[in-house]
UniProtKB/TrEMBL annotation:
It comes from the Bacteria. PANTHER family: BETA-LACTAMASE-RELATED DOMAIN-CONTAINING PROTEIN, D-ALANYL-D-ALANINE-CARBOXYPEPTIDASE/ENDOPEPTIDASE AMPH. InterPro entries: AmpC-like, Beta-lactam-related, Beta-lactam/transpept-like. Keywords: Hydrolase, Signal. This is Class A beta-lactamase-related serine hydrolase. Residues 174-470 form the Beta-lactamase-related domain. GO terms for molecular function: hydrolase activity. The lineage of its organism: Bacteria, Pseudomonadati, Bacteroidota, Flavobacteriia, Flavobacteriales. Residues 1-21 form the signal peptide.
Length: 487
């Protein structure tokens, strides 16, 4: 047999073996490497976070480019500063082509030490006040190595650069969608198999300044699931009873003469069965009062959550910020979330709020924690919270079961658990834990599907959001069309 034929056979066998090593897209390693790609290029390339790049790139980086030649780490950083991150109004960005990513594990004597990542990137030019322009496409192959729990980028091949083979050269329709509906910014986080795999922020903070990867959004009532999870953790640790009467710790002066206050428990409050209005100030005489007996039916109430906050703070002699930091923020690795505008708040990253006509709403700063509203957070941080919840490793099966239990029925296929609304009757035998948030210039949504451990969150800093939700849910997200049709 000719040598060339032998070579071809060997080469083909190599490709077959290589392809067979590709891991499934729902595997933990694939999801981890997909997240690495998303965060690496969004923070390092698109947002020019060079300090982050320095930490995640190996000292002996080898970067091979089919047009710019070989680069070591020093030259790579020089070129990044010069061509990718210059001080100009035009900025190159890149995004992963959906469905192109492949991951191949690297083992040494059965122990995972790295992975090869392959895919296709689309490149764009971002210019202030204009839609992103699609300029080129290229393939990439990256070698990541694992150092304990950290992944380090060691080698990169960037090749097959060419112009896009489509008439449409604009970025996705998302930026146009936001512009058409006068919503300046949108943040999306996606969870797959219990892991946050995508964090993406589109648009601008204020109609002009590009919204960064770590944009801070006010998320309104998405505060409630965070507070509820803090309470459930206290219950799980035996520090508080789910059905423990709260009057021994706190009685609101407005209802001290109404004996029904003795019926209030964490279960009743977290399932919105207190009998309280949403907020006392919305209705005369602007005093807290029972509108029905606690525990008899559902009525959404921020007052109830605040009542529980005050009772807990009195019981433990600690503020809710301290308790949540200890039992949720730290274990969930949430480092960029706060209840109010404290000294760590970076106002330059805040997504300012806009009404349905696109007019800016004056920013109202809160300087006191509220368990029902006003949480300030990022897509990545709230995504980490959802990871923490969805993997049900922080609560016992008993308390997690209470959280997802149908505590009270709202309507057909809709219930309330503890801190989350529960929607049933999805396809694939799924059910969803969902919560939304709404304030002037704020619209947010978070949903997790406990069976598949998929989920997503959407943060918007405008009021005119219906068409945005319809487009994103029906075209982009897991069971999103079904969710939209349930509205």
């Amino acid at each position: 047999m000719p040598k060339t034929s032998i070579f071809k056979i060997v080469f083909l066998l190599f490709l077959v073996n290589f392809a067979s090593a590709q891991i499934q897209k729902n595997s933990p390693l694939f999801i981890t490497l997909k997240k690495q790609d998303s965060i690496f290029f969004e923070r390092g390339f698109n947002r020019c976070d060079l300090e982050y790049l320095e930490k995640i790139i190996a000292k002996d980086l080898k970067f091979y480019h089919d047009q710019s030649g070989f680069q070591n780490k020093k030259l790579f950083f020089e070129n990044t500063r010069k061509y990718i991150c210059p001080d100009s109004d035009k900025k190159p960005i890149r995004k992963l082509q959906e469905g192109s990513l492949k991951v191949f594990p690297l083992y040494n004597n059965g122990e995972l030490y790295g992975a090869i990542q392959k895919g296709t990137h689309n490149f764009y030019i971002r210019e202030k006040g204009k839609d992103d322009i699609w300029t080129s496409t290229a393939k990439f192959t990256s070698v990541w190595t694992k150092n304990k729990e950290e992944w380090i980028l060691n080698e990169v091949l960037s090749y097959d650069h060419h112009k896009p083979n489509t008439k449409s050269k604009q970025l996705s329709a998302i930026n146009q969608l936001l512009s058409d509906n006068k919503v300046p910014a949108m943040g999306i986080g996606i969870l797959e198999n219990g892991k946050l795999t995508k964090v993406q922020v589109y648009g601008s903070l204020d109609g002009e300044k590009t919204a960064p990867y770590n944009t801070i959004f006010k998320v309104a009532s998405l505060t409630k699931p965070v507070f509820a999870f803090t309470v459930l953790t206290l219950i799980d640790k035996g520090l508080l009873g789910l059905d423990e009467p709260l009057y021994q710790y706190w009685i609101d002066p407005d209802i001290k003469n109404d004996e029904r206050h003795k019926k209030l428990t964490p279960r009743i409050i977290l399932s919105h069965q207190t009998g309280f209005p949403n907020w006392r100030y919305l209705k005369e005489p602007k005093k807290l009062e029972f509108q029905f007996d606690p525990g008899t039916k559902y009525q959404y109430s921020g007052e109830g959550f605040e009542y529980l906050r005050k009772a807990i703070e009195h019981k433990f002699n600690k503020k809710i910020e301290e308790l949540t930091n200890e039992y949720v923020f730290k274990p969930a690795k949430m480092t960029d979330t706060r209840f109010w505008w404290d000294t760590t708040m970076d106002e330059t990253r805040y997504a300012q709020n806009f009404d349905n006509k696109g007019n800016k709403i004056p920013t109202k700063k809160y300087y006191k924690a509220n368990s029902a509203a006003n949480l300030l957070t990022t897509v990545e941080d709230y995504g980490r919270f959802m990871e923490y919840v969805i993997n049900d490793t922080s609560l016992s099966k008993n308390i997690f079961g209470e959280m997802i239990k149908h505590q009270v029925k709202l309507e057909d296929n809709s219930y309330f658990g503890l801190g989350w609304q529960i929607l049933t009757n999805f396809s694939k035998n799924e059910y969803g834990l969902i919560h939304t948030g709404k304030d002037p210039g704020v619209s947010t949504l978070a949903i997790i599907f406990p069976k598949s451990k998929n989920g997503y969150l959407i943060f918007l800093n405008g009021d005119n959001v219906d068409k945005v939700y319809e487009n994103i849910l029906s075209k982009e997200l897991y069971l999103g069309l079904e969710l939209w049709n349930m509205r």
